Amino acid sequence: MRKLIVITLVLLVVAVLTGGCAAAPRLTADDIKQVRFSSFFDGREWTATGEEVGRFVEAYNEAKRLSNNNGTTAPARIDVTFKTGEVLQIWGGGQRFQTVEWDGEQSNIEGEKLHVLLAEIAQAK
User: Which of 20, 36, 93, 114 gives 20 to 30 Å between its CA and that of 74?
Assistant: First the structure.
């Protein structure tokens, strides 16, 4: 019994330290200068409206971090430029997870609303 408790605690600590149970870093619309959507199916790109930015921020903030062993070619991308000049890029819309690159680091996250938003961007006409 004691061994089971120790193993469970070790696994929990590893999950927390590796970000397996953590949410992606939170965003606020106030920090964002611009959001651009890109569909790789037809090459369209556009700047998000205020309503689209709000929808994106809500969807992104609900996403959870995943392990980084997933990979795919995504049909859509979101580029977020912050007032500080930093850029956040998110690829997705095909699989249920999204790939994020921010501050030189790449990771995977999963959010249902973010998946739906990227799938809509990919199919935009």
Answer: 20
- DSSP secondary structure string, 90-112? EEESSSSSEEEEETTEEEEEE-H
* Amino acid code (one letter) for 10: V
The two three-digit tokens of residue 104, written as one number: 């030189």
Q: Which amino acid is at 28?
A: T
Q: Find out whether 11 and 54 touch, Cβ atoms under 8 Å.
A: no
Per residue in 60-97, pLDDT (tens digit) is: 999 888 766 656 678 899 999 999 999 999 999 888 88
Please count the other Cβ atoms lying within 10 Å of the Cβ belonging to residue 60. 24
- Report d(CA 102, CA 24) in Å as an integer: 11
DSSP state of 116: H
Q: By the 8 A CB rule, do 38 and 45 touch?
A: yes
Q: Write down the pTM of the prediction.
A: 0.69
